[in-house]
Amino acid sequence: MSILIENISKHFGHFQALSPLSLDINEGEMIGLLGPSGSGKTTLLRIIAGLEGADTGRIKFGDRDVTNLHVRDRRVGFVFQNYALFRHMTVADNVAFGLEVLPRKERPSPTEIKNRVMHLLEMVQLEHLANRFPSQLSGGQKQRIALARALATQPEVLLLDEPFGALDAKVRKELRRWLRGLHDELGFTSVFVTHDQEEALELSDRVVVMSNGHIEQIDQPGALYASPNSRFVFDFLGNANVFEGKVENGKWHNGKASIVLPDAAKQKDGQLYIRSHEFFVSKEPTAHANLPLRVIAINPIGAEVRLELTPIDWQSNDVWEIDLPHKAFDKNCFEKGQTLYVTPKAGYFFAHDAQKPVLLSWETEKVKTADKA
Ligand SMILES: Nc1ncnc2c1ncn2[C@@H]1O[C@H](COP(=O)(O)OP(=O)(O)OP(=O)(O)O)[C@@H](O)[C@H]1O
């Protein structure tokens, strides 16, 4: 079922929670609504569900205009963060609930309900827990039951609000994979809310990045990561270091630090955003950059080592984070308190007078040569 969202806006009193926004969701697509707290994700999801009315605009499911339809007539499935299972009912009764409350004309027979519940429990691989109560389940199991319950009425649209927010990282990852598999197998259309960029990028066919009640960018995960179209999106997708530079003699300067402008750069003042893995690190400045930093922390994180650094004799608002493969780290034997120099390999430049960034790259070979010199 496709979903068309057209000029939807929402006020709570004088506060504008959603500016008029539009979004076209294809049948069978999985869409992640990503944004910081208060950006309007849940409000938009609730308006799609019919739990909240919009001030303006309309919503269509396929050819059906559902703008004024009651939540129960929209036929959507929901999953919330806090499981929302009925504590006094068994797992099987919880899953059957949506079917039991259907109007008599639409309600399947008791045998059919029983069969459908068992099938759903098999699908979420928890048929052996049919007679347990929610208090006897783990968080991950509860959430799978919540999903089975949401799917019982065979909705064509599934809406999920931070479905895995309360779970630990490992279970979260497992459930994500499993939800994606189920989505692909059953072919429903899903919209889920998250403030976790990794979750959004991993699960979604397209990600909708929201801030302050409007849409900043809609893109496939790869495109979003490769071409963030604003500072906000860049910041929100994480792990960027920002160098604020003023142009002088073909270089960006900031205090005693400098970066040579690559050929493609316009001679403009602005901010260079560099991702944490886009650096060479050395014990001396290179021909391309003189960015001295002091090591304040060293944290091994999985396949990489993250160095936290503060500028020496230049200004930056944030601590810098640089991720190095273990090999590169071991070769250099960096220690806390030590001074080192970083050279960007690539970065996004936002000129002060521009909204959109330019992707810049320093030719790798040249930097390497300079590094060795
Ligand atoms: N019923 C309400 N009454 C008044 N203000 C509300 C109501 N619901 C939401 N808001 C406000 O609207 C804004 C958007 O809220 P919303 O819950 O949609 O954000 P969100 O992006 O989902 O945030 P979070 O990630 O924290 O859940 C917030 O500033 C919130 O305080």
Which keywords apply here?
alpha+beta, 28% helix, 7-stranded antiparallel β-sheet, 11 helices, Rossmann fold, elongated, 35% strand, binds adenosine-5'-triphosphate, OB fold (Dihydrolipoamide Acetyltransferase, E2P), 6-stranded mixed β-sheet, 2 domains, 373 residues
Task: Please characterize this protein's 3D structure.
- This protein has helices spanning 41-49, 71-74, 91-100, 110-123, 139-151, 169-186, 197-203, 221-226, 231-237, 326-332, 364-372, and strands at 3-12, 15-25, 30-34, 56-61, 64-65, 76-80, 157-161, 189-194, 206-211, 214-219, 240-248, 251-254, 257-260, 270-275, 279-282, 289-290, 292-301, 304-311, 320-325, 339-344, 346-351, 358-361.
- It is α+β, with helices and mostly antiparallel strands and 373 residues long.
- It has two domains: 3-227, Rossmann fold, CATH 3.40.50; 239-361, Nucleic acid-binding proteins (OB fold (Dihydrolipoamide Acetyltransferase, E2P)), CATH 2.40.50.140.
- The protein has a seven-stranded antiparallel sheet. A six-stranded mixed sheet has the order 6-7-8-3-9-10, sandwiched between helices.
- α3 crosses α4, α3 (91-100) runs parallel beside α5 (139-151) and α4 packs across α5.
- The longest helix has 18 residues, at 169-186.
- Residues 367-373 have low confidence and may be disordered.
- The structure holds adenosine-5'-triphosphate.
- The site of adenosine-5'-triphosphate (ATP) has 13 residues, from β2 and α1.
- The site of adenosine-5'-triphosphate has 13 residues, from β2 and α1.
- One of its GO terms (molecular function) is ATP binding.
- One of its GO terms (cellular component) is ATP-binding cassette (ABC) transporter complex.
- Keywords: ATP-binding, Cell membrane, Membrane, Nucleotide-binding, Sulfate transport, Translocase, Transport.
